[in-house]
C-alpha cells in the first residue's frame, strides 16, 4: 500500500481513501499496524480541527434516530459530518451486526456525511479499539463534526469521554429514578443530557424527566471546564426534529467558551497523554501473546493450577524474567 498516496487522498477528502485508511488502522496484523502508524504520522499536524462529540445512551433510547436527524440538520447548514458507530460484538461468535448504516438511511445518502460502523470486539468502554485513530483520520479528511456513538450506557461506557470534546448522554422519558436509571459515574462525565422522544403522548413525561435530571445535575460538584449553567438537561425529539437547533447552539456555546478559556487545548493534550499510556499498556499485553512469554505463561499457569505456585508468585516470576519489571 502506498501510504504517501493514501495520505494525500485523505487530505483531499476522498471518502474511499478514508474508508480504506480506517480499515487499515483497525487491522491487527503487524505489517498493517506499522503502515497505520506511518499513515497517522504523515497526517499529524495537518491543522484541521473538528468538533468531536461523543454520544451514549441505553439501548432503545433512539441514538441512531437522533444521530440521523441531528446529522442531517448539520449537513443542511453546510457542515461535513462523520459518524463512527460502534456495534457490540457477540461474546460467543465474535460477530457484529453493524446495522447503523442501514438505520441511518437518509444520512447515509447525504454527500456531506460519512458513516462508519465498527465492531467493539472485546474492547471495553463502549468504543472500538481504534476509534481514536479513526477520529484523527476523519479530522484530516476535513470533516467539521465527528459523532462517536457508543454501544450502550453503563459504568464502563465512559471511554468515549477520553476521545471527545463534548459528551452527550441520551435519555428516555420515564426511565426511572434519575440517579438509579443511569449510574452517577457517567452522569458526572456528561456535558449535556438530552431527553429524547419528547413528542406525542410522551412529551409531558419527557419535560418532567428533563426537570428531574436538571435538579440532579445541580447536586453534582461543579467542574472547572464548565461555564455557569453547565452541564444542563434538554428535551429533543428525533422523530419530529424538535430541539435539535437548541442542542447544537448549546454545544457550540460550550465549545466556544472552553476554547476561549484554554480548556479545549488542555483537554486534548490530556487525552493525548491518556492514549499514549493506553498504547503502552496494549503493547505490554500483546507481548504476553507472543513467544517465549506465551509458553512461559502457559507453564506457570499449569503450576498455579496444580497448587505448586501461588498466582502472585507466578506473576512476579513472569514479570522479572520476561518483562524486566
Structure description:
By secondary structure, this protein is α/β, with parallel strands linked by helices. Helices cover 49% and strands 12% of the residues. The protein is built from 13 helices and seven strands. Strands 3-2-4-1-5-6-7 form a seven-stranded parallel sheet, with helices on both faces. Helix 8 links the parallel strand 5 (166-171) and strand 6 (192-195). Helix 1 (3-11) crosses helix 2 (15-26) and helix 2 packs across helix 3 (30-43).
Distance between the termini: 37 Å
State the shape.
Answer: globular
- Mean pLDDT across residues: 84
How does the major sheet shape up? 7 strands, parallel
Q: Can you write the helix and strand succession as a string?
A: HHHEHEHHEHEEHEHEHHHH
Low-confidence stretches are 89-97, 122-126
Number of helices: 13
| Share of residues in helices | 40-55%
Characteristic key phrases:
12% strand
What topology emerges from the helices and strands here?
Layout: H1 3-11, H2 15-26, H3 30-43, E1 51-57, H4 63-76, E2 81-87, H5 100-103, H6 105-108, E3 113-119, H7 131-140, E4 145-149, E5 166-171, H8 184-189, E6 192-195, H9 203-217, E7 232-235, H10 244-261, H11 263-287, H12 293-306, H13 311-323
Parallel strand pairs: 1-4, 1-5, 2-3, 2-4, 5-6, 6-7
Helix pairs in contact: 1-2, 1-3, 2-3, 2-7, 12-13
Amino acid at each position: 500500500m502506498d501510504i504517501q498516496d493514501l495520505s494525500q487522498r485523505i487530505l483531499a477528502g476522498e471518502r474511499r481513501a478514508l474508508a480504506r485508511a480506517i480499515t487499515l488502522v483497525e487491522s491487527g496484523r503487524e505489517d498493517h499496524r506499522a503502515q497505520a502508524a506511518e499513515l497517522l504520522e504523515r497526517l499529524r499536524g495537518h491543522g484541521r480541527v473538528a468538533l468531536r462529540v461523543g454520544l451514549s445512551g441505553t439501548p432503545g433510547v433512539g441514538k441512531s434516530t437522533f444521530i440521523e436527524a441531528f446529522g442531517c440538520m448539520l449537513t443542511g447548514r453546510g457542515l461535513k459530518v462523520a459518524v463512527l458507530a460502534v456495534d457490540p460484538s457477540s461474546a460467543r461468535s465474535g460477530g457484529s451486526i453493524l446495522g447503523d448504516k442501514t438505520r441511518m438511511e437518509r444520512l447515509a445518502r447525504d454527500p456531506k456525511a460519512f458513516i462508519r460502523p465498527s465492531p467493539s470486539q472485546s474492547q471495553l468502554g463502549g468504543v472500538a479499539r481504534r476509534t481514536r485513530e479513526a477520529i484523527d483520520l476523519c479530522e484530516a479528511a476535513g470533516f467539521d463534526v465527528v459523532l462517536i456513538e457508543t454501544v450502550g450506557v453503563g459504568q464502563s461506557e465512559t471511554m468515549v469521554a477520553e476521545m471527545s470534546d463534548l459528551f452527550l448522554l441520551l435519555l428516555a422519558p420515564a426511565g426511572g429514578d434519575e440517579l438509579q436509571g443511569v449510574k452517577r459515574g457517567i452522569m458526572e462525565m456528561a456535558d449535556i443530557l438530552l431527553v429524547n422522544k419528547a413528542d406525542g403522548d410522551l412529551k409531558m413525561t419527557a419535560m418532567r424527566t428533563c426537570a428531574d435530571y436538571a435538579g440532579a445535575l445541580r447536586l453534582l460538584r461543579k467542574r472547572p471546564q464548565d461555564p455557569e449553567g453547565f452541564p444542563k438537561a434538554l428535551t429533543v425529539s428525533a422523530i419530529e426534529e424538535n430541539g435539535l437547533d437548541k442542542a447544537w447552539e448549546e454545544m457550540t456555546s460550550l465549545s466556544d467558551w472552553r476554547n476561549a478559556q484554554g480548556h479545549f487545548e488542555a483537554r486534548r493534550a490530556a487525552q493525548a497523554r491518556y492514549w499514549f499510556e493506553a498504547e503502552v499498556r496494549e503493547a505490554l499485553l500483546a507481548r504476553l501473546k507472543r513467544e517465549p512469554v506465551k509458553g512461559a505463561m502457559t507453564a506457570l499457569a499449569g503450576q498455579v493450577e496444580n497448587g505448586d505456585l501461588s498466582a502472585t508468585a507466578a506473576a512476579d516470576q513472569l514479570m522479572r524474567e520476561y518483562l524486566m519489571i
